[in-house]
């Protein structure tokens, strides 16, 4: 039985991985983690409309990966390093689970392997 906290954590993980599942959004993340950029500057690099880039930034913001602020008429976006670290932590947990399973399979295979014949 999962608690509300577990459900919230899983919803957050879904949002983070959904946001990072798109190539353009990962590229935007790389750029905003290096420094704050206006959405207009970000949009200039891509072969898509400004509105499409705004939507990508909105998905990243909704997932908590990007922080936006307004200065005058510009929207400035920067990456949230803590959120990226939480993604890395989740991936590390999954890696630990799989390394444990592979280690147990190796142990079982070693038990079933017959000893080589002696001469």
Features:
mainly alpha, 67% helix
> Number of helical runs?
5
C-alpha termini separation: 58 Å
* Largest beta-sheet details: 3 strands, antiparallel
Number of strands: 3
Shape: elongated
Helix content: 55-70%
N-to-C SSE series? HHEHHEEH
Low-confidence stretches: none
Indicate the proportion of strand residues. 5-15%
What is the typical, i.e. mean, pLDDT? 92
Oligomer: single chain
Query: In which order are the strands of the major sheet placed?
Result: 1-3-2
Cα gyration radius (Å): 22 Å
Structural class comes to: mainly alpha
Description:
The chain has 119 residues and is mostly helical. Helices cover 67% and strands 12% of the residues. It is built from five helices and three strands, in the order ααβααββα. The chain has helices at 4-20, 23-34, 39-44, 50-62, 81-112, and strands at 37-38, 66-71, 74-79. Strands 1-3-2 form a three-stranded antiparallel beta sheet. Strand 2 and strand 3 form a beta hairpin. The longest helix has 32 residues, at 81-112. It is elongated. 15% of the residues are buried. The mean pLDDT is 92.
Set down the secondary structure blueprint.
Layout: H1 4-20, H2 23-34, E1 37-38, H3 39-44, H4 50-62, E2 66-71, E3 74-79, H5 81-112
Antiparallel strand pairs: 1-3, 2-3
Helix pairs in contact: 1-4, 2-4
């Amino acid at each position: 039985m999962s608690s509300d906290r577990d459900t919230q954590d899983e919803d957050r993980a879904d949002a983070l991985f959904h946001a990072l599942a798109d190539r353009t959004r990962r590229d935007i993340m790389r750029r905003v983690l290096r420094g704050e950029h206006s959405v207009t500057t970000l949009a200039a690099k891509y072969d898509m409309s400004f509105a499409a880039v705004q939507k990508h930034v909105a998905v990243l913001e909704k997932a908590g990966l990007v922080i936006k602020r307004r200065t005058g008429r510009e929207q400035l976006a920067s990456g949230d390093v803590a959120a990226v670290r939480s993604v890395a932590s989740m991936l590390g947990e999954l890696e630990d689970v799989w390394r444990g399973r592979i280690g147990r399979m190796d142990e079982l295979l070693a038990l079933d392997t017959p000893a080589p014949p002696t001469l």
